[in-house]
Amino acid sequence: MARQAKKRRRSRATAITWVLLAIVVTAALSVGACALWLPDRAPSILGTAKQAQSAPASVQSYSGQQQVNVVPTISSDRELLGNASGIVTANWTDTQLRSGTRAYQVNDRTVIAIHTQTPLYRDLKTGIRGKMCVRSTIC
């Protein structure tokens, strides 16, 4: 008797499991079919596109004049060799140059003095040898 009750409970649990599985699969297939076959609708928050006929604008007068205080100073000529072109706007080479420190500014862009044993760049050509072209494909 106990075996038959246990067997009925087990078969009832199996039947419930299959019914739930069938419901889940049916729902998933229905959602997938709706997503594929129903037409897409634009969200209601988006309106139809309209062509702008006018846009607000204002008129402002600008002459380009402004007062600037200028204090001219005269300094001795100094030759700075570098690959930057423009106007030297600051110069910190009064005492000494140390590698890794700023040397001068050209057009408000700082140029840093760097001294290394190995050049930071060099032209590579076919047949060149050395540490610089170990990974290069043309060496």
Task: Please tell me about this protein's structure.
- With 139 residues, this protein is α+β, with helices and mostly antiparallel strands.
- Among the domains are: 1-38; 85-116, no CATH class.
- Helix content is 26%, strand content 9%.
- It is built from one helix and three strands.
- The chain has one helix spanning 2-37; strands at residues 88-91, 102-106, 109-112.
- Strands 1-2-3 form a three-stranded antiparallel beta sheet, with no helix packed on it.
- A hairpin with a 2-residue loop joins strand 2 (102-106) and strand 3.
- The longest helix has 36 residues, at 2-37.
- The protein is elongated, with a radius of gyration of 40 Å.
- The N and C termini lie far apart (89 Å).
Keyphrases for this structure?
139 residues; alpha+beta; single chain; 9% strand
Strand content: 5-15%
Q: How many helical stretches?
A: 1
Gyration radius from CA atoms, angstroms:
40 Å
Q: First CA to last CA: what distance?
A: 89 Å
Task: Decide which structural class fits the backbone.
Answer: alpha+beta
Shape: elongated
> Largest beta sheet: what is the strand line-up?
1-2-3
SSE series? HEEE
Mean pLDDT: 78
Number of strands: 3
Largest sheet: 3 strands, antiparallel
User: Which consecutive residue ranges, at least 5 long each, have pLDDT under 50?
Assistant: none
Helicity level: 25-40%
